[in-house]
Amino acid sequence: FDIPISLSLDDAGSEFTDKRLAVLAVNYPVLGDHFATLSLEQIKTLRKINPNIIILRYMSAAAGYQVIDNKFKLAHPEIFLKNPDGSLPRGLLSPDDELVIDPANAFWRETLANAARTAVTEEGYDGIMMDQLVMVNRLYNGFNGVNPATGNAYTTEEWRDAMYDLLAEVKQAMGPNALLVGNSIRDGPGYYAEGAGRFLAVLDGVVAEGYKGPLSRDTLFYPKESEWIKNVDVLVDVQSQGKYFLAIAKYDKNRVTSQEDLSQHVMFTL
Fold this sequence. Notes:
Layout: E1 6-8, H1 18-27, E2 30-32, H2 40-49, E3 54-60, H3 70-75, H4 106-121, E4 127-131, H5 156-174, E5 179-183, H6 188-193, E6 205-208, H7 225-240, E7 244-247, H8 259-269
Parallel strand pairs: 1-2, 2-3, 3-4, 4-5, 5-6, 6-7
Helix pairs in contact: 1-2, 4-5
């Protein structure tokens, strides 16, 4: 298949020897560092082998992954949302252990914009893959993080408006030649149902992390024809606007029904 495959470097303990970097540079047109941060020298090595490779720095707009550390969090508690009782909500789309950053907080916007600018001007990256935008997946029922502008719990629509403005600031700080790619539009049906296309005004591309369905589906499951048509439509729609489209077709290894089914599922997805 003549299909460009991107790779997200998720293993924080990875060792990138020159030999391994050469393999990555030859086989993948796009690399995202995620939890395995690349050094400037490693990026230079990749580009020496493949001058056209695109290397994206992972950042989270809602949890601060790869942007801030615990020391920063302790020094700047004002960037985090609070529940009506003063406690701190944890988890944005579903309960987890991470504090949730207010996308409208001016100091956080400045911090994120500066980090993105540094990544593309000093660290050698071509752009940012920004995670946890909630372009499609809605804030979960019971999320009580208070929007300081209203005094009430953030609605999904308010969150998206604030995130849109944050992304616009980040994009301006990075400059016109750097790429800002956002996750997640989930899939074609979600993209159209939630009006996620408006984010393309401040993004250079989108990531569809649930492109072939949620992880809860096993390898015997295939999307309905109506769902897949919208998946193809959204790909064409985004690319026709001169934007990048990244489709993630991951699966849960615990949901693999057999190696034969997995192989057939991967072939179908490609």
